Amino acid sequence: MKSYRKELWFHTNSRREFINITPQVAQCLKESGITEGLCLVNAMHITASVFINDDESGLHQDFEMWLEKLAPEKPYSQYRHNGFEDNADAHLKRTIMGREVVVAVTEGKLDLGPWEQIFYGEFDGKRRKRVLVKIIGE
C-alpha cells in the first residue's frame, strides 16, 4: 500500500469564501500515482471547512445566507467565545459545514458524482490556512 501527503495553502481576501479545490486535489491524486484507494481532504483549522457539493453560485449564496442566519457574525457580544477574537460564528459555521471529506479513488480518478465538487470553506479568512490531502491505496 502506498501513502501520499500534501498540504494545500489558501489565503482569502475576505472573511468568508468558498473555493473549489477539486482541480488541486485531482492534481495531488495524479502526483501520488495511486489508482485504487481513498483520498482524505481535511481543513487543518477550526474556522475552515472542507465539503462536497455543487459548484453553483446561487447555491453558494444560499449557503452564506443560511449560515449567517444560524450563526450571525455580529453582534460579537452575543458569543461567550468572543473576547480576544471575534470568530465564534466561524467555529459554529465550520461545525455545520464539516471538517473533511473522503473520496473513493477508482481507476486513478476521484470517484465523484456527476455534480459533486470538493470545496474549501473559509469562515474567518484574511490569513494563510491549510488543507491536508492524504491518499492511501495501490
Describe this entry's structure for a reader.
This protein is an alpha+beta fold and 138 residues long. It has a single domain, classed as Sandwich (Jelly Rolls), CATH 2.60.120. It has 3 helices and 8 strands. The strands form 2 sheets. The protein has a 5-stranded antiparallel beta sheet with strand order 1-8-3-5-6, with helices on one face. Strands 2-7-4 form a 3-stranded antiparallel beta sheet. Strand 5 and strand 6 form a beta hairpin. 24% of the residues are buried.
Brief synopsis:
The chain is α+β, with helices and mostly antiparallel strands and 138 residues long. The protein has helices spanning 22-32, 57-70, 88-97; strands at residues 2-11, 17-20, 37-43, 48-53, 100-106, 109-110, 117-122, 128-137. The strands form two sheets. Strands 1-8-3-5-6 form a five-stranded antiparallel beta sheet, with helices on one face. Strands 2-7-4 form a three-stranded antiparallel beta sheet.
